[in-house]
Amino acid sequence: KQWYQRRVAITAGTISEDNCMEWGWNGSWNKNISRIAFPLTDTASDFYRHRPHKDSEDSMSAVDTRMPLSAHQSSTRLIRDQPQSADLAIDDDLATSSHTICAWNTDHWYMMKFKSVRCFSEVIIVNSYLDYNAFRMQDLGVFVQDSHKETSMKCGSLKARDDSTIEGQTYRISCDGLCGDEVVLKIRHDRGDYSYMGCIHMAEVRVEFAGCVSKFDEDGSSYRGMVNTTISGKECQRWDTQSPNMHKMRPDQRSDDGLDDNYCRNPDGSKWPWCYNSESNSPRWEYCDIPICATPNCIEDDDEDGSDYRGKVAQTESGRTCQRWDQQTPNRHDEEPHNKPSHSLEENYCRNPDRSERPWCYNGEGNSPRWEYCDVPMCSTLRHPYLNVMEVDEKDMDNEDDMNKKEKSTDCDSALIPLL
What is each CA distance from 244 to 31, 34, 237, 251, in whole angstroms? Predict the structure, then answer.
């Protein structure tokens, strides 16, 4: 009854829905919470400020390409006879939310399907839960899948917080440039392992595309960023034009290659993303200077002992799970986060707070051994090799009878693709 009275007031115009958002009933009849209306906070406003309003004049011309083609979920909960469907988490409206049915021992999932393969820097989840219900999403895994190659790689997991703010919690899960055409959220809470049943409830979920090439993408063929200049600084030619260079790399014939505007791409299996030269036909094309996505799970070459490492490796070189730095079991120690705030002793990630040879952690599985070093790679081992951009590699042309086949050439002998 409380909810109904407030809903009538809102729809009748007492409170403007354009200038406020509502957080609703918490899902439990014996803890019915009145509907609340309040202005968007700074955090929520910043989150959506750059996205065109669905009713704005520019909404058609400023389409948000981060929006998926479709969204689906494993089940849909009904609240007051209203389905909390998957599309409500991608509708640009914080007052609505998607919600799967909560249950024990059940695999819950939420999938966003994109038109083509994209590379993702992070997935952002705005969770509208304001209380303990946030822990229903504890350990939710975020995956990037390629439906064509049938591959799936994990970005990371959501670790619920117990802070209850007026806008709920916002979580950012890094994907480090993983590429695919699907982003999938998965969770399962088995009875006895968790305090609450598992389910997926989100006010909004958003992705950010990577402006770099994934370290797993050897030739950059999955790159869908917006770099549009060549390695020597020339502006790229649009893929849908034939001037000044005629070619066969047409967007209408290569719909899966992401030939948008004049962005650098690799549609033909070359060594790296490239584009045709829009300024002339000499050189006809060049590679683009696109960095490899940096991974936090490596040690920079100038960091001799790894003391600056802030990645998320959390197991020892023998495979043991690390002990959390803020815990004293099974091993008591003095390397506590509040004692060494500059060393970023977060969770159970490997660190080097005492100038040892390299990052290490206490053994979270016992006290023998008490601690071990961690197997953290050097970043130099993850860099892309040099590109020999002088190598001859012809691009197809439309009118080969009227035009001589022009070989690839650039003004540079070679180029190092840097780590971002």
Answer: 68, 64, 8, 17
Q: What is the pLDDT of residues 46-100, one digit of tens each?
A: 333 333 333 333 322 233 446 788 999 999 999 999 999 999 999 988 889 999 9
Q: Is 341 helix (H, G, I), strand (E, B) or coil?
A: helix
Sign of CA dihedral 187, 190, 195, 201: positive
Q: Residue 237 and residue 263: Cα distance in Å, rounded?
A: 8
Q: How far apart are CA 21 and CA 203, in angstroms?
A: 11
Report whether 207 contacts 123 (CB < 8 A): yes
The number of helices, as runs of H, and strands, as runs of E, in the chain is: 2, 16
Residue reference for tokens 């990577």: 210
- Residue 334 to residues 175, 266, 337, 370, Cα–Cα distance (Å): 33, 52, 9, 13
Query: What is the C-alpha separation between 198 and 103, in angstroms, rounded?
Result: 6
